[in-house]
Amino acid sequence: RCPSIGADVDLDADFVYDYEKLRLGGLIFAGVIVFLSIILLAGNKIRNCGKSKVRYCWMGL
Asked: Is the model's pLDDT at 58 over the cut of 70?
């Protein structure tokens, strides 16, 4: 059945936010992002640990 023209129909009347799941999902997402960023930043230092970084500057005259 189609509602009559001009009738106000609220299609989202039965929609309710589940704030606990939304909050938990946000915290998990933020934790994963922080963990991955720490691994990314520390990984480069761990990989280069013990290697000397000698850079030679060549000046072509």
From this structure: no
